[in-house]
Design a protein that fits this description.
Chains A, B: Its EC number is 1.3.99.41. The structure is a homodimer of 568-residue chains. By secondary structure, the first copy, chain A, is α+β, with helices and mostly antiparallel strands. Chain A is built from 20 helices and eleven strands. The N and C termini of chain A lie far apart (47 Å). In chain A, strands 3, 4, 5, 6, 7, 10 and 11 form a seven-stranded mixed beta sheet that branches. A two-stranded antiparallel sheet of chain A has the order 1-2. The first copy, chain A, has a domain at 430-568. The interface between A and B is large, with 94 and 94 residues.
Chain lengths: 568, 568
């Protein structure tokens, strides 16, 4: 399955759509000039195309497996990991003092998306390390940072996140893993964790687990949770992996897809761990990890969608069937063309949302301005949920282009569909993202949302001269979204917000998509970008109306039927 | 995975929503009294629950396989087939003179849907036989009927459809299989056929293939195709399976789902076949098979969706997570409840569309009135495409309810999602269905569509007194659909219709869903049905507007980007 990294798409987005020049103009990211960015994207793209893409099928056909307690990864994955590590791609945004490149999260996000398009199951491994690096950087002691960060950034060691337990999924606060002080500054961690992505491998010297557990004096719920760093091998005095810690992979899950990525059940039996952050302050550290990972998972959705799209486009341009003009392929049929255009337009929009979110994170980092932080916080759940939602439906559409072959594994179309499905589930389900959007992210009374809508409307006003219909449609949709936002904010019972959270998030994404497409049209007034924008705004943006009706319906009717009546 | 056949749902639909009393009032179906119908549904439901549902996981975990050319089916499938056959379920609508029950297609459709919910991969086997029975009944010689129909109806023998070839999928006319007269009234059939569902098994005495092939004097394209009955074993003088015919299963496809159903590559090397219908008249016979199968596949989508829904509902009612009221389970969370209500409302609507289509087929059979035939023809592509589309998205939603467990095969949620996906692809992709709707089914200038819309609006008028808002919304939506229908009919370039075919079909289904929900509300004014209708009409029906905007956009913008630009 050949894969072509969408480098030109990123160059266009950064230059014309999401205003990356603002990021590059800051002192913090002064090195991220246009040339540097292009060079980095090109180099990463090459690695994705040449090293990672050939591994995509390996992971599916030869899943990671556990042999007598030893984890064996898919053929070629060790070499893939090495290439990612040696290219410096794990540490793109990591601090330079520890060996990272110190570049904007915008670039990290772009590279992650490209790696996801090339081989999603392998990309999840560095993504886990990246989350750990960021959490340690923000919350760990200097000693821990000195020891772990260089190894994690170089890829000699790898990182994982251990949050979920059988009875504690979305409700992390219900966890029962325990941490007992050893008296020497370390802690004995015990408990079982499930759904641990890349919980082990056979290519990094050490595997470092960030584990949420409760200290003896930790209260029930999230406020009593602490975060611990628990390495597979305890570093010796020289910092090399020493004796094995008291932890093990109990089993691997048999999943619907993403077979190349081992999903582990982990058992900790008094394993030695080091506290990260404050006692009982685990949730704050976890959110650092999670926010990074959420944006990354949004990129996984978009990346897998891109891979699926390219695959379907290639098939459509080769497969001859029925009477058609032009190339004589199915790519000339109106319905196939509609599917191709839809995928292309959706990917552009989702990618722009990712980039806008990443850019806001960078601006917050560089300027310390609260407004950028609020923008990033607002966009993160949308980038995660919509990147994955649209990625799943692009993969579904791509499979449809293949007709009967799409259901046959040999075609590869099915793998994209199976693999990407998990992205709507893990790292906080898309329902959880939507609830985050309408609750936590609206604690400002909708200020951040309204500020973004102001920008969208002002931009639409500027575009009216060139694209009166498109600009008008975007303006109207933004205004309807604003009314729904106000409506949500006026609801005192949070359940009335939750009831419409998912459709609201989707409508928000639709409006953002229209906005970014309009920006693309302005930058390419006579070209393909403007035509794609017209397609999106006339055909896909109108979905926002139905979604907003759903978003504003309130909670009462959801409970009109009891669970018994739902079963009747 | 326990499964409960939705018999009460069918009883309600038949009595209150789709007017089955009209069918039962005809001479042809006078036996189908309310009591008889209930007894039959109950008996079939029992078989589905007790015999078929326990096989669902077997098919997935132990796929059908080919051992030295011999096909071995999944554990228990032979017993399952036997139970289906002995219950008479293959011949529900087959002629009584050959051992069938002669009952309405409405009942057949209901039973097929229930069997699909219990075990989709096994259900596909009788569905293939049913299509063959109908094709033979309509087009075969008396001698063929006498020999084959009783065996097919009793399930001693089974049937398949052989249409697709590697270069001839949606474009059946491109096929290259050949038929040469043997001089004794039989033909020698040669060629390769792919995607043959249940192309062989180890539980029926004989496997009868209906094969499309071209006679030496057959012109190119669909007009030169003939249909042949080609049995695995050639019947001897006593009608028993005799010598093996020159055909074989070359290989089985490795599919994304539906593992219990063997999808065969078939090779015919001068196999002896008997002509069905006229020489070069294969397409007509094929459409008889296909129309039956299309409605059946729509039922597969709804059935699999029902199975997935029940599974998710059971999980939601057990899984404790987070702070909730009521049962203390995730079923009390607004977003989960939204998903449950959505699934319930979607399944009701899709099932009503199936029943309305089946009822129209029965009325056409019983009365011979062209209007009923036109109604059935109009509803068939909608029933197929929407039954499967909504089934897929119900299965996706059900998987989402499971959270992380949904991606783990052990939960069973993933299997529904993987299995049902093919229903949008086979038996004519959903794109093909939509094109059929806007082209062939509009050759009457939209008369059948407008007649149905008249009924929907008149019904909404009647409902205004009790449900002013709901009735108003349905009326408005129907009117907008009418405008879109008129717009489509006014397009001279068929490509302008094809460009919006899929969203048009979806919008049509949404309006039909609103209509049937409104009928349900009228029959249960203070009850759960009315509440579910309010949910559907206020939250899901509004999607029609966005879909209709998409439907009326025309073809030009689809070709605004070349295939090269789509790849750029």
């Amino acid at each position: 399955m050949p894969y072509r990294a969408p480098v030109p798409e990123y160059e266009f987005l950064l230059r014309h759509v999401v205003g990356f020049d603002r990021v590059a103009a800051t002192d913090r990211f002064a090195e991220a000039s246009e040339d540097t960015v292009s060079a980095i994207l090109t180099e990463a793209g090459k690695m994705c195309e040449e090293v990672m893409a050939p591994l995509q099928r390996n992971g599916d056909l030869h899943p990671a497996r556990l042999e007598n307690g030893v984890l064996r990864t898919s053929p070629g994955f060790a070499e893939g990991w090495k290439a990612i590590a040696e290219g410096g791609w794990i540490g793109i945004s990591a601090p330079e003092e520890h060996g990272g490149m110190g570049l904007p999260v915008t670039l990290l996000t772009a590279v992650n998306e490209m790696m996801s398009g090339a081989c999603l199951s392998l990309e999840l491994a560095p993504l886990m390390s990246m989350g750990q690096i960021e959490a340690l950087e923000a919350h760990a002691s200097e000693a821990l940072k000195e020891l772990y960060l260089p190894k994690l950034i170089s890829g000699e060691w790898s990182g994982t996140m251990n949050l979920t337990e059988p009875q504690a999924g979305s409700d992390v606060g219900a966890l029962s893993s325990k941490a007992v002080p050893n008296g020497d500054g370390t802690y004995a961690i015990s408990g079982q964790k499930i759904f641990i992505s890349w919980g082990d491998n056979d290519f990094s010297e050490n595997v470092c687990h960030l584990v949420l557990a409760r200290l003896p004096d930790g209260v029930a719920g999230t406020k009593g949770i602490s975060l611990f760093l628990v390495p597979k091998y305890i570093p010796d005095e020289t910092g090399k992996p020493g004796v094995a810690n008291s932890l093990k992979v109990v089993s691997l899950e048999h999943k619907m897809g993403l077979h190349g990525s081992p999903t582990c059940v982990m058992q900790y039996d008094g394993a030695r761990g080091w506290l990260v952050g404050a006692e009982h302050g685990g949730m704050a550290a976890m959110f650092t990890m999670m926010n990074n990972a959420r944006l990354g998972v949004g990129g996984q959705g978009v990346g897998a969608g891109e891979g699926a799209y390219q695959h379907a486009l290639a098939y459509a341009g080769e497969r001859k069937q029925g009477r058609t003009g032009g190339t004589g392929t199915i790519g000339e049929h109106a319905d196939v063309r509609r599917m191709l255009m839809t995928m292309k337009a959706e990917l552009f929009a989702s990618r722009a949302i990712l980039m806008a979110c990443a850019g806001a994170i960078d601006m917050a980092t560089a300027t310390g301005e609260a407004e950028w932080g609020a923008r990033a916080a607002l966009l993160t759940p949308i980038a995660k949920a919509w990147g994955t939602e649209s990625g799943i439906h692009v993969a579904e559409t791509a499979q449809q282009v293949f007709g009967g072959m799409g259901f046959i594994e040999e075609s590869g179309a099915a793998q994209y569909y199976r693999d990407v499905r998990v992205t709507a589930i893990y790292e906080g389900t898309n329902g959880i993202q939507a609830m985050d959007l309408v609750a936590r992210k609206m604690m400002d009374g909708g200020e951040a949302a309204n500020r973004l809508l102001d920008e969208i409307e002002a931009h639409a006003e500027q575009a009216r001269g060139d694209f009166p219909e498109l600009a008008g449609a975007v303006w109207e949709a933004a205004e309807e979204l604003r009314e729904a936002t106000d409506w949500l904010n006026a609801q005192k019972d949070m359940n009335d917000r939750f009831a419409g959270a998912v459709p609201y998030l989707k409508a928000f994404a639709r409006v953002l998509g229209g906005h970014y497409h309009l920006a693309a049209a302005l930058a390419d007034k006579e070209g393909a970008r403007a035509k794609l924008a017209a397609f999106y705004i006339s055909r896909l943006l109108p979905e926002h109306a139905g979604l907003l009706a759903h978003a504003r319906a309130g909670a009462a009717d959801l409970y009109a039927l009891s669970l018994e009546e739902l079963a009747a």
